[in-house]
Amino acid sequence: ITTRQFSGRANPWIDREMRMRTWRERLFRLIDTGDAYAIFTGGMGTLVELACLSESIRRRLIPGKPAAVLGSMWKQMFRLLARESGIGRDLALNFVRSPEDALALFRRAL
Length: 110
Prior knowledge:
With 110 residues, this protein is an alpha/beta fold. It has helices spanning 23-33, 44-58, 72-85, 99-109; strands at residues 2-3, 19-20, 37-39, 67-70, 94-96. The longest helix has 15 residues, at 44-58.
């Protein structure tokens, strides 16, 4: 799912592109249409997507869907967030060590 607001196209592994008009439309389409989510190391955009996904699942705005978070960066960030804010146990995220662990999570959940 891409947006006209950013330049570039979908990567070469994508066989069907869904092009949204705005970044917000893209964000919520990503969350609404996924069956499962694999979150890799990224930047601020990935952080926004991850936070919106977790909140949407946690607040039951979307059905519980498996979310596999890869990368020690995210685990450290959420550990700090949990310590400072008290949230953490209900993040609706699964921190995994490898893509294979993510796949195993998805197979169990789907």
